[in-house]
Specification:
The chain is mainly beta and about 425 residues long. The protein folds into two domains: about 15-115 and about 410-415, no CATH class; about 115-395, Beta-galactosidase, Chain A, domain 5 (Distorted Sandwich). The chain is built from four helices and 25 strands. The chain has helices at about 25-30, 360-365, 395-400, 400-410, and strands spanning about 15-20, 35, 45-50, 70-75, 85-95, 100-105, 115-120, 125-130, 135-140, 150, 180-185, 205-215, 220-230, 235-245, 250-260, 265-270, 275-280, 295-300, 315-325, 325-335, 345, 350-355, 375, 380-390, 410-415. It has an eight-stranded antiparallel β-sheet. A hairpin with a 4-residue loop joins β21 (about 345) and β22.
Length: about 425
């Protein structure tokens, strides 16, 4: 059977990269290669991508390819590129500092593997499955004033976020009912509180899904949201994209949100109550309460630990501890492109874990009130990007500094062919 043209969409397990030219690959395929160059540090595991030309036609058909060191690859169109472009993405593993590795494009007739990320509509919600196991659900239906992710499970299977207020578990804390799983809001936007859930607060309202995609490398959800004041005036709208990668070291989740000012400027106010946050399981708390022994800990890139990490600026922060007898953790990495990188952290020893670049006065009273205000002019936007790494064990076990390096200074990829063949 003669393979047909490649299309600019997810190709499931039909598209592969071979680290070496594979016997039977075909002369045309052997000319389509990508060179990956490592930075000045080792990369154990990291997503890498390169722009490829657009294609029309049917998905890749079957082809005879000898099995060798093959890596699954996926094609999709990212939001920050021209929509006629496509991006080829795969996971690079065990790349040494300064190493250059060349991959060759190949086509497989293998059926889709269970080792993939499935993103599925569940009514108005969206479920993310990694290798057949539920990782998280994007819930747009049950929150009084915001969409959020719940449950959120560690790679070991345990739920890493607190159950309450979504579920009642005996002995679990019941403070701060607005702490729901994993979410993005802020306590002062044009003076309106979107953080709390009490009377007179604002709402972030889900308005639709632009894209849902599954694949062997990542799963993607792109959703839209309106920001409404208590009197239902829209002051902002956002596009939020989530990519969950199929990695061996844990669950890797990229969260990007672009918020556009509507009907006037948008002022993000100086308050500690925000912004991109999780409420972690009680057993992970760095301070279990009076008379109780705590088993969880906080550490950031600057070396601040536990309660001392609150309000400090750092490129990343990790919160870890036991859940049902297994030590697990989550690191949040602040993208170097973000406003005010490195961000400050509203991370509490009772389990709240939030990146907040706005609360500069609240975090340090030496700063005058309003120091953390950020104004976005009307019809302009601001973007925040974060990577989360849900891992097994301690930060030392997961080598969090190396995961940060792979995110902040990733390998670079170059397409060696200017155009892929119309037909393989």
């Amino acid at each position: 059977m003669r393979p047909r043209k490649l299309q600019s969409a997810s190709l499931g397990a039909g598209l592969l990269l071979a680290a070496n030219v594979v016997p039977g690959l075909g002369a045309e395929l052997a000319t389509v290669s990508v060179t990956v160059s490592a930075p000045d540090h080792d990369v154990r595991e990291a997503p890498v991508s390169v722009v490829v030309p657009p294609f029309a036609g049917s998905p890749v058909a079957s082809a005879s390819v000898a099995q060798a060191d093959l890596t699954a690859a996926q094609i999709g169109a990212p939001p920050d590129l021209n929509p006629v472009d496509s991006r080829l993405t795969w996971i690079v593993r065990d790349l040494k500092a300064g190493e250059r590795r060349t991959y060759h494009l190949a086509v497989s007739n293998a059926t889709p593997s269970a080792n993939r990320v499935e993103v599925k509509r569940n009514g108005e919600n969206v479920d993310f499955f990694v290798n057949g196991k539920l990782f998280t659900r994007y819930d747009t239906t049950t929150g009084p004033n915001k969409p959020y992710f719940y449950p959120v499970n560690a790679p070991t299977g345990q739920q890493i976020v607190r159950h309450w207020p979504l579920e009642k578990v005996e002995g679990e804390t019941q403070d701060h009912p607005h702490h729901r799983g994993l979410w993005f809001t802020h306590g002062k936007v044009n003076g309106v509180d979107f953080w709390l859930e009490s009377k007179g607060t604002g709402r972030t309202v889900h308005t639709g899904y632009e894209k849902i995609e599954s694949g062997p490398v990542y799963g993607l959800m792109r959703a839209t949201t309106d920001w409404l004041t208590p009197d239902a005036k829209k002051i902002a709208e956002d596009v939020r994209e989530v990519r969950v990668y199929n990695t061996t070291g844990g669950y890797l989740m990229d969260f990007a949100i672009t918020i556009k000012a509507v009907g006037g400027p948008l002022v993000w106010g100086d308050t500690k109550e925000g912004t991109f946050a999780l409420r972690l399981a009680d057993s992970m708390r760095a301070n279990a309460g009076k008379g109780k022994q705590s088993a969880g800990h906080i550490v950031n890139a600057a070396g601040d630990k536990d309660g001392a990490a609150w309000g400090k600026a750092a490129a990343w922060c990790d919160y870890y501890g036991p859940v049902d007898g297994q030590v697990v953790g989550v690191a949040i990495f602040d993208d170097p492109r973000n406003p005010r990188h490195p961000t400050t952290w509203h991370v509490r020893d009772y389990g709240l874990f939030a990146a907040n670049p706005f609360g500069l006065h609240d975090f340090d009273k030496k700063n005058p009130p309003g120091t953390g205000d950020l104004t976005v002019p009307e019809n302009e936007s601001v973007t925040f990007r974060y990577r989360l790494f849900f891992h097994k064990g301690t930060p030392e076990d997961a080598n969090i500094p190396a995961v940060w390096q792979a995110f902040s200074a990733p390998p670079t990829a170059t397409l060696n062919s200017r155009a892929l063949p119309d037909q393989f």
